[in-house]
Design goal:
This protein is mainly α and about 350 residues long. The protein is built from 16 helices and 4 strands.
């Protein structure tokens, strides 16, 4: 796949300099904290396994100047929320391994991280648990790591208010409860870059059923990135490359499953957002996990053929306003990631998500 070519017209869409990525700023309206407090009585899932996207979507809405729309959006989304499940038994520093990956313990895990973040700096808690949770990055169709990424971004750019720290506890608790390692994989031929690596990911034999059924069929991934990515700065650069490639790929391949394929970009971007809060020794393993998550989603849902797309007909700000008016949570979150990239193909991919996903408002 040529990420610089519009497959509809054959012309370059990235010949002009890319717009600078969106620079996150703190929310001074109080809207985000209000929304998070409103949401924390709810569990991270509904109907037994579908994710509650509201905390992630409202963070993105506030971050891009859409704070006035947040409570109306939550009013519309509210029927999808379910109460936090009841606790069963206390997770502790001694017994956490037996509770890891047990979705029945979501409330126990959330309480555990609530205690941890109340007693210690949130960065210390994140640094301790990040390497424990990374092997299960596919948990909950990657939604837990995405939720953690939105939370960390908020904590990094603003005050660590009680609702924001509590949101990190909720995200980590969800990740721990749904922790899901991928099957053992055979390494395939090395790929020269992230775009080629995603192109070379073999689809699972049966692209049907839920994501857990699909992930169970994974057998092999291309070797990417190169071993030099063990260097923290190189790992960050390759992670940025992966987010860009996965975002661009949505423009040509998002039609395969437009809801699920956004996670091939939003999951590694969540990892990228967390890096500044993590020790540099964790950056290389973070890249490896992010690649596994993006490749897994691509294998599970990617279509066999690319499709044409049109360049975006609006600025980044206008596109996000359009995504907010569209209202679909996945569209909002993917457009948020596309604006982090900011180039013409990324904006075209954001437009494609608005076109492909059914509107919610």
């Amino acid at each position: 796949m040529d990420d610089t070519t519009n497959t509809s017209t054959g012309t370059s869409t990235d010949s002009a300099p890319a717009a600078p990525p969106t620079t996150p700023t703190d929310d001074t309206t109080g809207t985000l904290d209000e929304a998070l407090e409103r949401l924390h009585a709810s569990g991270p899932e509904r109907n037994g396994w579908l994710s509650n996207h509201a905390p992630m979507a409202v963070e993105a809405l506030v971050r891009h100047g859409q704070a006035p729309t947040v409570h109306r959006w939550l009013d519309h989304y509210g029927h999808k929320l379910e109460d936090m499940p009841a606790t069963s038994s206390r997770v502790t520093a001694e017994n956490w391994r037996e509770a890891l990956g047990d979705p029945r313990r979501i409330a126990d895990w959330t309480e555990y991280f609530g205690r941890e973040t109340a007693e210690r700096p949130w960065r210390d808690v994140l640094a301790e648990w990040w390497p424990r949770l990374l092997p299960g990055i596919a948990a909950g169709a990657t939604h837990p790591v995405i939720r953690v990424g939105h939370s960390v971004r908020t904590l990094l750019v603003g005050e660590a208010t009680a609702p924001r720290v509590a949101e990190l506890a909720h995200g980590l608790g969800y990740w721990a409860a749904r922790h899901q390692p991928l099957p053992a994989l055979t390494p395939l031929a090395p790929a020269p870059d992230a775009a080629a690596a995603l192109d070379a990911v073999p689809p699972v034999p049966e692209q049907s059923g839920g994501i857990r059924d699909r992930l169970a069929q994974l057998t092999a991934f291309p070797v990417w990135p190169r071993p030099s990515a063990d260097d923290p700065d190189e790992a960050r650069a390759r992670l940025e490359e992966l987010v860009r490639a996965a975002t661009h790929r949505f423009a040509t391949h998002g039609h395969g499953e437009p809801i699920m394929l956004v996670h091939a970009a939003t999951a590694p971007n969540a990892v990228l957002r967390a890096l500044p809060a993590l020790p540099r020794t964790l950056w290389a393993p973070s890249l490896a996990a992010a690649w596994a998550a993006s490749a897994a989603v691509t294998a599970a849902y990617g279509p066999a053929e690319a499709a044409p797309y049109e360049p975006a007909d609006a600025s980044a700000e206008e596109l996000f306003a359009r995504a907010a008016a569209h209202g679909d949570d996945h569209t909002i979150k993917f457009t948020d990631t596309a604006l982090d990239i900011g180039d013409a193909t990324a904006l075209a991919a954001a437009l494609r998500s608005i076109e492909l996903n059914p509107p919610a408002l």
